[in-house]
């Protein structure tokens, strides 16, 4: 999957699942592009589809909004860091 995260407007923030902002956006940060994310997911079903094993990998590419946040927090020449993570899970239906 591919995701493109953007703010609805330049006065908007980036929100967590509970709808509280990660941080209050500076009035000077007019960038709308938060980040791009690439997800690779593999799921294997077995035992009559009652059990599944899934593994995934994600790569988040920081956008101009996060670059501006890094400059505000760490000074000129700073740049946001891309993130990578992986997971695995076992799901059992009864």
- Distance between the amino and carboxyl termini: 29 Å
Beta-strand content bin: 35-45%
Average pLDDT reading:
90
C-alpha geometry: elongated
Strand order of the largest sheet: 1-2-3-4
Largest sheet: 4 strands, antiparallel
Given as residue ranges, the uncertain stretches (5+ residues, pLDDT < 50) are: none
Topology as H/E string? EEEHE
Question: Quaternary state, please?
Answer: single chain
Task: Count helical runs.
Answer: 1
Radius of gyration (Å)? 18 Å
In helices, the fraction of residues equals 10-25%
Secondary structure: number of strands: 4
Look at the helices and sheets and give the structural class. mainly beta
Short description:
The protein has 94 residues and is mainly beta.
Description of the molecule:
The chain has 94 residues and is mostly beta strands. The protein is built from one helix and four strands; from the N terminus they run βββαβ. It has one helix at residues 64-74; strands at residues 2-6, 33-46, 51-62, 83-92. The protein has a four-stranded antiparallel beta sheet with strand order 1-2-3-4. The longest helix has 11 residues, at 64-74. The model has no long low-confidence stretch (mean pLDDT 90).
């Amino acid at each position: 999957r591919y995701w493109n995260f953007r703010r609805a407007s330049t006065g908007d923030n980036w929100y967590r699942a509970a709808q509280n902002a990660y941080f209050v956006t500076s009035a000077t940060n007019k960038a709308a592009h938060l980040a791009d994310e690439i997800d690779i997911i593999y799921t294997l079903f077995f035992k009559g589809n009652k059990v599944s094993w899934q593994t995934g990998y994600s790569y988040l590419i920081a956008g101009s909004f996060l670059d501006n946040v890094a400059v505000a927090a760490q000074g000129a020449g700073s740049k946001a860091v891309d993130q990578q993570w992986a997971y695995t899970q076992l799901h059992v239906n009864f």
